[in-house]
Specification:
The chain is an alpha/beta fold. The protein contains eleven helices and 16 strands. Strands 1-8-2-3-7-4-6-5-9-10-11 form an eleven-stranded mixed beta sheet, with helices on both faces. The protein has a five-stranded parallel beta sheet with strand order 14-13-15-12-16, with helices on both faces. α1 packs across α6. The protein is globular and about 60 Å long. The structure holds adenosine monophosphate and magnesium ion (MG).
């Protein structure tokens, strides 16, 4: 049985959140909204509770999970070493969509970190998430609340589709604001390295830290086994049932020309083709067209739900033209590359 409760994200009811926190404390699983995507939470210090996350998501055991906290000083409890730069970043970006990778302390169970000697920690700004961690009074391990490999959930309905009946509770706090996951930043290397681009941009991090490297896999589609920093980086991700074809090019016009040609070819083959328009609405005829918004922020917010919507509309293929990898564009392109079966 999965209980679904509605909570106002602007003014969450503490009483309702207490019910959810009780489930966490008793070793259960609660899906909750964060500012990025919905998370599937368990008590991070309870090994068997965390194990259940992997089971219900069908997540490979070698893909580590981010630990969510509500107070700065919990970080000292989870991390064995906290380098000086951490405090700068915490001051500037927490609470918010930045996850920090640090050497782990003994208190963090191996199942959370997939046996790595590092732990990924973040403090979410969403009020429901914050209150849930506070009331549970334990750090909460939470990956995205979707079945492994599927697009991440940005509404409680997406969570329901993937996990109803398998988890104890879903807190419905409306659509998430940012829509793509947090930026994962490795602070155990110098200069720091982005393992996954997300809600906090590369540019913002460099303005605070100076040089920040991008892990080679950030811009790649295929798994790059020999260089994965975190085993989870090697799997296929964010994939709807329909095949995603990502079109890249030298300019907007170049991309639009290629998209038009591809859509036409696939439709001649009798395929039902979905066209995702990021930022700019192309004048191309397809079976289903979805426009994601005028800015990278709007595109990020609508990206995952548009992939799910394409599946509901039963398209065979989704063609999407790439955008510039500036600001949130880097995270958007990263997700599209990982979701795609082909890059043109
Ligand atoms: P998700 O399950 O969608 O929230 O993704 C969590 C991501 O955080 C994983 O794919 C990992 O790549 C990353 N992550 C979690 N823990 C660590 C860690 N200890 N070291 C490096 N990356 C991590
Ligand atoms: Mg995920």
């Amino acid at each position: 049985m999965t209980i679904i409760i509605r909570v106002d994200p602007k003014k969450p009811s503490r009483e309702r959140i207490r019910d959810a926190a009780k489930i966490i404390r008793e070793g259960g699983l609660v899906a909750f909204p964060t500012e990025t995507v919905y998370g599937l939470g368990a008590d991070a210090l309870n090994e068997s509770a965390v194990r259940k996350i992997f089971e219900v998501k069908q997540r490979p055991m070698d893909d580590p999970i981010i630990v969510h906290i509500s107070r700065d000083n919990t970080l000292q409890l989870l991390a064995a070493e906290v380098p000086e730069v951490t405090f700068k970043l915490v001051k500037k970006f927490w609470p918010g969509p930045l996850t920090l990778v640090l050497k782990k302390s003994k208190i963090v169970p191996a199942v959370v970190t997939a046996g790595l000697d590092t732990v990924a920690v973040r403090m979410p700004s969403n009020k429901i998430a914050h209150m849930l961690i506070e009331e549970a009074d334990v750090p909460i391990a939470a990956p995205s609340a979707n079945l492994f490999g599927k697009p991440s959930p940005t509404t409680a309905e997406h969570v329901r589709q993937d996990l109803y009946g398998k988890i104890d509770m879903i807190i419905d706090g409306g659509q998430t604001e940012i829509g793509v996951e947090s930026t994962v930043l490795d602070l155990t290397v110098s200069p720091p390295m982005i393992l996954r681009p997300g809600g906090v941009t590369h540019e913002e991090l460099e303005s605070i830290l100076g040089e920040v490297k991008l892990h080679p896999s950030v811009r790649r589609r295929k798994k790059v086994l020999e260089v994965v920093k975190s085993p989870g980086m090697k799997y296929r991700h964010y994939s709807p049932k329909a095949d995603v074809i990502l079109v890249e090019g030298k300019s907007g016009e170049d991309i639009e020309r290629k998209v038009a040609k591809l859509v036409d070819e696939y439709r001649r083959e009798g395929k039902r083709v979905g066209l995702l328009n990021l930022v700019k609405e192309m004048k191309i005829e397809a079976d289903v067209c979805i426009f994601l918004g005028n800015s990278p922020e709007e595109v990020a917010r609508n990206l995952f739900s548009s992939l799910r919507e394409m599946d509901e509309k039963k398209v065979d293929l989704i063609v999407v033209g790439g955008i510039e990898e500036k600001g949130l564009g880097l995270a958007i392109m990263n997700r599209l590359r990982k979701a795609s079966v082909r890059i043109v």
